Structure formats: C-alpha cells, structure tokens
Amino acid sequence: MTFYYLTPERHRSWVILIGSYVFYAWWRVDFLLLFVAVTLWNYFIGRRISNCGPQTAGARQWVFLGVSINLSALAYFKYANFGVTTVNAAMAELGLDPWLLTAVILPIGISFYIFQAISYIIDVYRGDVPATKNLVDFAAFIALFPQLIAGPVLRYKDIADQFSQRTHSLDKFSEGAHRFMLGFVKKVVIADTLAPLVNKGFVLQDPSFLDAWLTLLAYTAQLYFDFSGYADMAIGLGLMMGFRFMGNFSHPYISQSITEFWRRWHISLSSWLRDYLYIPLGGNRYGVIITYRNLFLTMLLGGLWHGANWTFLVWGAWHGAILALEKAFGVDTSGARFSILRWLFCLLLVMLGWVVFRAENISQAQSLYAALMPTMAPETLKFSPVYAGQITSLQLWTLALSWSVIVLRGFYQRQQDRSPNYPAHGVGGSVMVPFAHAALLLPVFMLAIFKLSAESYSAFLYFQF
Amino acid sequence: MTGMLLKKLIVLFFLGTVFGAGISTLFDLETTSDSKKSSTEDFNGHALMSGELARNFESRYDDDFSLRQFGLNVWAAFQYSIFKEAQNGLLIGHQGWLFTSEEFIANPGGDEALAANINFITEASRLLASKNVALIVVLIPSKARLLSGQTGRHQPSLVQQKTYPQVLNHLQEESVLTVDGL
Fold it and tell me: Which residue in A453, A455, A456, A458 has the most chain B C-beta atoms within 10 A of its own C-beta, making it the best mutation to test that interface?
C-alpha cells in the first residue's frame, strides 16, 4: 500500500501487478507460471476476437478455443484427482487394475481467476467491452490481489474504466479501512469462534438431535461471517486503492425463496452463472421444460465449481431442483411481501443444503441428516458427552450474537430496501460511517487482533474452492 | 466537520494498528534472526518454489508478532472476566484451581484405546511373570478425581468418571498387582 501511494498514478497498475504476483508466489512460486500463462492466453484470445469483430464466425471460433482451454486447465487441476478416484472405484468393482495418477495440486484461487478470464473473452465476443491493448492493466485485473483467492468474481467490463481513471480520497480510504476492519471482525471474532463447534460437530460418530442442530446453526452462521468477512476485507482493500468492487452479499439469510437467496448470496458468482451459463444454455427462452433443465444444470455445475466431490454435486442439485420447483409453482420470488413462515421455510432449506455442502462425504452428511430428524427418544434430546464437554459459553454467546446480527441487520436492511432513496443491492455507494458504529468497531477490531494473536488461525472457508 | 474527523480517526487507527504492529514485528524478526538462523540456512530452491520458505517465515512472524504476548494476556483476561473461561484445553475450578480439559471430556474412540492399553499391561505383566519379575502397577488418579471438590461447575464425563475404577477392576481381574492410588 505504501509503494502504491508513493508511485505516480500512471504506473500504479505495475505496482498492483507486481504486488499481486508476489502475493500469489508467496503460496507457491511454481504455480505463478500457470497464472501468468492463463493471463497471456486470455489476453491473446481477446485480441484475436477483437480483430475478427464481435459475434462474427471467426470470433466464435476464438472464443470457443479460449473457453475450452480455460476450462481444460480448470478441469485438470481441480477435477483430475476426483475423476481418477471415481473411475478407479468403478474399475475396482469390475476387477480391473486402477489408473495411476500423481496427485494434482489445486492452485489456489484458480476457480476465481479462470472465471474472470472467461467472462472477459465472452464479453469481448459479445461486444460488451473492447479488448484491451494494455497487457499490464489486463494482468493486474486478473491478478488483483485483494480478491484473487476467494472473490468477488470480477468482470473486466465493470472495472476496466477504473484501471485508467479512479479516484483516491480520504472518503474512499476511510470507507475501505472501515469495511476491512468490519470483515476482519466478522472473520476472527465470529467465524473463528464458531469453527470448533462446527468442526467437532461434523465428526461426531453418533450425533444427537441437539448436537446436530447446534452444529448446523453454528455452521450456517460461520460460513456467512467467514465468507462475507473475506469479501468485506477484499472490497475494503480495493477501496483503499481506489477501486469499487461489487458487493458479494446482501443479507442472504432473510430471503423468502431460494431464488431470492441466490440474489443475495455470493452475488458475483450467481450473476456470473446467470450471464455465462444459464443464458447461453437458453435461459427461459425455449419453454418451461428447458427452463427447468437450465436452472437445474446451472446450479449443478455451480455446485461442482465449489469442489471435486459428490457432496457439492448433491448441494448444487438441491438448489437447482428447488429453483425449478419455485418456477414451476409460480412462487413469488420478489421478496416484496414478508411472511415469517416463508422466511423460516427458506432458511430451513438453505441450512439443509449446508449439511451436504460442509460434509466431507455423503455418509457423513447422511449421519447428520438422520440426527436432525425430530425424535422422542430422550437420549437424543440432550448433547452427547463427547460434544457437550467441548462447548464453551464464549461459543454459545457468539452464536447467539451472530444470529441476532443476521436477523436484526437483515430486517433493518429489508426496511431500507423499501425506501426509494436507498441504493440497490450490491451497488456500494459511499456510506457515511455513523459515529456510534465506529466507536464500537475500533475497539472490537483491536480485540480481534488480540484474539488472532492469542489463538490459532483458521483458513478462510472459501480458500479451498 | 465531525464526519471528516471521524474518517481521519478511522484511517489513523487502521494504519496505526496494522502497519505499526506489522513493522515493529519485522524489526523484532531482524533482531532475533541470529538465534533462529537455522531456518534461513534451510534455504534452497525447492523450499522457495514450493512455498515452504514463505511458510517458515510466516511461522516465525506469528511467533514474534509484537502484540502476541500482550494479545494473549488481553484475550485471556477478556474471556475470563466475561465468561469465567480460560484458553482452549484449560478449565477453571473453585478457588483458582486449574484443570486440563482432557480429564473431563469423553474422547471419541477412548474405550478402544483404554481396552488396548489394559491388554498391553496384562501381556507385559504375563511376560515379566514368566521371567520371575513381578509387575506392580501404580494407578495415578487424574487431578480432577483427586480434587473432585474443586472442579466447580465442570464435571468429568461419565466415561472419564468410570475410567479409574474400570482400569483397576480389569487389572485385578487379570491378576495384575495394583496399588490403588486413591
């Protein structure tokens, strides 16, 4: 940040690029080469598409080639191990010798930067944005370190102008610092405190009804505060460098339908899937059956994007099926009218989905699903000794605080959304920081630093994707 | 005017805490590097390429973080004053008595481990007996068992409570000489 502000404005993309490459190489230097290769490849494809002209036959061939190579890289690094394991299991059933494949290391952030690169070449093909001639700006866009590892998934067309013209001001820096501190607090104070409840709950061999529900409540809150905390930190760092990224969350747990949930959860990914997968598949243009299929396929592939595991496919299928059902039954997904029953039902559906999303395998998910079922057996209506001995008051109070924040902030936001003068979701206008908010945030941020230095660090949950 | 002052305060606070703590730790790393030269001596191309070198540096950075000890103290004080709880692995009883949490929690797979240990002691006793050596096992009770009146609101799990008499009975049934420490 210091180098950035000491560098003349016209060279700042270089500082971002070099800083981002150092940041990436910090994890593994060798995989930086893959990162650079992906960047050069997509820059080249963008130029070729531009030379052919948007939406021409020649451009179509280049975009097909570009997307194919991008997806091939993603498929190899992310899914090769899973594919070979699955095939070997089938071959073992048939009594055949297994394939041998040296375990492939998953390059950190590959799911995010490949998606950003794909969106760029498709946007150039569609004529939504001209292909850039500035390789440094393009490489800096792909590598932009605040969001490199876990999003938000940026689109070149949204921030291309910001590379050439962006403002730096005390207002923006202050807003960024505030957003960063808020994200840090969400992550360290809430998500990391809840992590032991979740980690221990998911590995219980025979969880009781109460074990299962406490684990699920904790995970639902942990995932939101962890991931939205990272997004806040990324957006905050971006603001400190003059960038304004799109918001990635808008109080998802107050949704009244799964359709609304996906307008509020991981907004950059869900809008990416809509624009680059659902619409190219045909969207809702070819009748109801094709629409249901497209919804289902989009979410199935969206689930697979999260990781090479059957659990993610099941989670994607769960959401895809519900989206299709909501469409089929004509459910009001606008979220305009509030019904407490609909809200609770939607939250239940989301939480049931998180079980298989978090489980290491299907059988672990089955064990927790079975425990979540209501039962009158008295032994299941108390915490199992293995779990109970590890629950602390700090964790329980943090859980209560996290759900209070989710509900109260969510409903406050719902009231604000009704106001015609309030900005729409995900579009971050300059926010005046209330004094009371800052007065609370600053000491809690300090406390979060002390907590982080006192306890072990838990990696961000979305780093694995 | 108040708004501008608040923004300046936020920026100063952020830069002060993040950069202040970070830079002071880097100076600490510099001054303590002589005593920890081994990690730099491990430098090689593979460590650099695989990120091992960076992780070693991170580990040293975490250990030498300038606010670490102060942070430990503040967080422990916060947790104790609000929740009467201590750091992970430690339980607070009456009159300041401290206990390790492993004496209270039922460990998954603990029964199997206990059975394996009893079996091992029995086999060892038989082997020594065949060589005319008597094995006498002195069972040391857990601190929570010795000071059961001081554990406060923490009660060992049923599994933990049963462990001592269970081991004693098993060994006596197997004719292993034991001394009941309690």
Answer: A453
Which residues in chain A touch residue B85, judged by CB atoms under 8 angstroms apart? 392-394
Three state DSSP letters for A398-451: HHHHHHHHHHHHHHHHHHHHHCCCCCCCCCCCCCCCCHHHHHHHHHHHHHHHHH
Give the global pTM: 0.85
The three-point CA angle A161-A166-A168 to 5° equals 170
Q: Best of A386, A399, A430, A447 to disrupt the B interface by mutation (most B CBs within 10 Å)?
A: A386
* Interval A343-388: pLDDT, tens: 999 999 999 999 999 999 999 999 999 999 987 777 778 888 778 8
Q: Is there a contact between A447 and B74 if contact means CB atoms under 8 Å apart?
A: yes
Domain boundaries, chain B: 2-66, 110-180
- Do A189 and A444 form a contact (C-beta atoms < 8 A)? yes
Are A326 and A333 within 8 A, CB to CB?
A: yes
Q: Does the pLDDT of residue A229 top 90, yes or no?
A: yes
Q: Compute the distance between CA of residue A349 and CA of residue A258 in angstroms, rounded to an integer.
A: 8
Q: With contacts defined as CB-CB under 8 Å, which chain A residues touch B83?
A: 392-394, 397
pLDDT digits (tens, 9 = 90+) for A173-210: 999 999 999 999 999 999 999 999 999 999 888 899 99
Tokens representing residue A348 in the block: 């239940």
Q: Cα(first)–Cα(last) distance of chain B, in Å?
A: 72
Please identify among residues 37-66 of chain B the ones whose CB lies closer than 8 Å to any CB of chain A. 48-51, 54, 62, 65
Contact A177 B4 (CB under 8 A): no
**Calpha distance B131→B163 (Å, rounded):** 30
Q: Which residues of chain A neighbour B65 with C-beta distances below 8 Å?
A: 453
Phi, psi of B178 (to 5 degrees): -130, 155
Q: Cα separation of A462 and A224, whole Å?
A: 11
Using an 8 Å CB-CB cutoff, list chain A residues near B70.
450, 453
A25 band by pLDDT with thresholds 50, 70 and 90: confident
3-state secondary structure of A255: coil
What are A95-146's pLDDT values in tens digits?
Answer: 888 777 777 887 888 888 999 999 999 999 999 999 999 999 999 999 888 7
B16: distance to nearest CA of chain A, Å? 11
CB contact under 8 A, B14 and A181: yes
